[in-house]
Specification:
alpha/beta; Aspartate Aminotransferase, domain 2; Aspartate Aminotransferase, domain 1; 2 domains; 13% strand; binds pyridoxal-5'-phosphate
Amino acid sequence: MSKYGFNTKCLQSGYDPKNGEPRILPIFQSTTFRYESADEVAALFDLAKEGHMYSRISNPTVAAFEEKISDLEGGVGALATSSGQSASLIAILTICNNGEHFIAPNNIYGGSFTLFSSTLAKFGISASFFSKDASDEEIESLIKPETKLIFTESLSNPGVDVLDLERFVNLAHKNGLPLIVDNTLATPYLLRPIEHGADIVIHSSTKYIDGHATSVGGVVVDSGNFDWTNGKFPHLTEKDPNYHGLSYTETFGEAAYIVKARAVFMRDLGTCLSPFNAFLMNLGTETLPVRMDRHSENALAVAEFLESHPKVEWVKYPFLKSSPSYENAVKYLKAGSGVISFGVKGGIEEGKKFIDNLKLTALIVHVGDIRTCALHPGSMTHRQLSEEDQIKAGITPNLIRLSVGLENIEDILEDIEKALEAI
Ligand code: PLP
């Protein structure tokens, strides 16, 4: 659907009903697909023919959602996963083997940090972390011969730091590495990392893509632009005995990465998205532009209110002029998204008191919902990080993460004001 505008693609990409077929994407709630000849199924197993054979690997409802997100991000293909965590996992496993390494900033989502620093380490894949303020020289000093990728977040959770995307694209490519960008909080409506040179984009589609807090899911999108034949990635270029000696780059060209992600890692790990959740996420994507505009408008109003409040020590929101990310926000983002982080005056007790006094705003371990919600990362999402790692990730004891929803702005502001007064 490349000739259409973004809003049109959100509504119509991925599913094109033929004469007499349902207007709305059907839920193909079937594990399997029937074929008439053994040769046809053999061809599917050999990756010689496209088609669905088992819903762990692909499914028509899930495929429509994948095609839509790929189209929105400007990729050559996408793989939907059961969660954002499994999107990160598969995105990295498709590149890094046992004994290999990658680098990432330390202000990423806490769950990604523990996946990288702890669980992937058990698989023999190590990660080194750098400060979000590190210089190019400091970052490059972490790159070793076994380093295979750079992982980043376009808009960090919960610090809402906006990545200088082009700087990281240059750093990665100068070292022959692909850049993976977690674009969860920005969404393709506010930023399309591939247009700035990113190689792989991932999402926790649990957040704004679903948007209604109904389902957990993720997506990996391949730009198709990275040169896997540069000598650093033999497992994508050399013959794979699991598929009768097929080379991914020779057989699938620009789609080598995303085909391998599905044909090897989705096949073996089975972290697939259910057809029903793909249906819900497709439905959410249809209204993504209108929701993101309103989330951003309401969040900017809340950020400005907080900035002028005497009980608030600091506020971070990309489009506040005081934001350290303001220049990057103007350069890369269409609007600021719905997430704000701020510090109440005081410490952990004042943070908790603010949360406990909210009424309309719900205490929820989530962002990106159409309803306003709040969280205290220090005692919740980031509590498994050591105190030192929390500080490195910018998680101060008084930090509150707000995910501003689509309610009337006066109601949101009144709720926040009353909770601040109660401190
Ligand atoms: N990436 C980011 C930026 C997130 O905020 C999250 C979850 O909050 C994830 C990845 C993980 O996603 P999921 O919860 O869908 O596994």
